[in-house]
């Protein structure tokens, strides 16, 4: 029992430090160079988004990690990872392992993200409902959304990348996911805008504009959107953020429960339409 309390204390401490660092970095950047001056640094749902960060960190991440660890254990015992590619990857320098693993993880995140928009939108809509995209928006996710995203780490694992490389690459993707939600006017010049995402690029993913719907799915590398035909990045900033359908009511509990009802209703409608 004492060990469990210590682990929980470590988790709370780590989450608090991560939120504090993000808060201070965003405070500096968002005040110096805001992308949208109408987006407040602290708004009506900031508390909800920070509370959600602790729920995800204390409950969802450990559950997702347990699932992944069990899968890894089974995979190692049954030698699922490809021996040939594993030996080949091991011969590469670390920087090449890191970059290629990051591309593979982002490729997985791209298709996970696109799948959430196409098939599991009620859950992902929780993230997109925010009308104030800024530093705390990156913690505004439905737990199921986070759990599914963890499985994108399996792609480099199957190929045989070392666990530490997968860990570092996933940290890089996590950092970019947080940073690109900042309310900061920042984009990259020339061809660099196709190499690395920026806040300006991801803001258009959240834009409440018909031409921006289902665009910019990547987390790190925009050339993936370019390859799959989902790249959209005008020079100006979006005028407003959010979704076209009514916001999910009921606070945090409503945002956790309502998507299950909506998803069930959608599945029933699809089945009924197929029978007709």
Computed CA radius of gyration, to the nearest angstrom: 20 Å
Described by its quaternary structure, the protein is: single chain
Tell me the fraction of residues in β-strands, as a range. under 5%
Helix content: 55-70%
Order of helices and strands: HHHHHHHHHHH
Q: How far apart lie the N and C ends?
A: 56 Å
Domains counted in the coordinates: how many? 1
Q: Count of DSSP helices? A: 11
How many E strands?
A: 0
- Please summarize the sheet with the most strands: none
Low-pLDDT runs:
none
Query: Mean of residue pLDDT?
Result: 87
Shape: globular
**What structural class do you assign from the helix and strand content?**
mainly alpha
Word description of this protein:
- By secondary structure, this protein is mainly alpha-helical.
- It has one domain (2-275).
- It is 62% helix and 0% strand.
- It is built from 11 helices and no strands.
- The chain has helices at 2-32, 46-77, 83-90, 94-118, 121-128, 143-150, 154-159, 163-179, 199-205, 223-227, 251-275.
- It is globular and about 50 Å long.
- 29% of the residues are buried.
- The mean pLDDT is 87.
In short:
The protein has 276 residues and is mainly α. It is 62% helix and 0% strand. It has one domain (2-275).
Feature tags:
single chain; 276 residues; mainly alpha; 11 helices; globular
Topology:
Layout: H1 2-32, H2 46-77, H3 83-90, H4 94-118, H5 121-128, H6 143-150, H7 154-159, H8 163-179, H9 199-205, H10 223-227, H11 251-275
């Amino acid at each position: 029992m004492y060990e469990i309390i210590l682990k929980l204390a470590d988790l709370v401490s780590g989450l608090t430090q991560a939120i504090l660092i993000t808060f201070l970095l965003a405070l500096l950047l968002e005040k110096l160079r805001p992308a949208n001056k109408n987006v407040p640094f602290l708004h009506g749902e900031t508390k909800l988004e920070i509370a959600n960060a602790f729920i995800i960190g204390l409950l969802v991440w450990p559950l997702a990690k347990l699932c992944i660890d069990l899968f890894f254990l089974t995979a190692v015992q049954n030698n699922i990872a490809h021996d040939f590619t594993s030996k080949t990857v091991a011969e590469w320098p670390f920087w090449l392992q890191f970059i290629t693993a990051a591309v593979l993880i982002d490729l997985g995140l791209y298709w996970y993200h696109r799948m959430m928009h196409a098939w599991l939108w009620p859950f992902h809509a929780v993230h997109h409902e925010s009308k104030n995209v800024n530093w705390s928006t990156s913690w505004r996710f439905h737990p199921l959304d986070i759990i599914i995203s963890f499985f994108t780490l399996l792609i480099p694992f199957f190929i045989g990348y070392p666990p530490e490389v997968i860990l570092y690459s996933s940290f890089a993707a996590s950092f970019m996911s947080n940073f690109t939600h900042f309310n900061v006017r920042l984009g990259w010049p020339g061809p660099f805008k196709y190499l690395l995402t920026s806040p300006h690029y991801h803001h258009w993913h959240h834009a409440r504009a018909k031409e921006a719907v289902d665009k910019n799915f990547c987390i790190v590398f925009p050339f993936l959107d370019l390859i799959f035909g989902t790249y959209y990045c005008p020079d100006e900033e979006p005028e407003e953020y959010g979704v076209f359908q009514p916001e999910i009511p009921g606070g945090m509990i409503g945002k956790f429960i309502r998507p299950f009802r909506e998803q069930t209703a959608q599945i029933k409608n699809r089945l009924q339409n197929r029978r007709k």
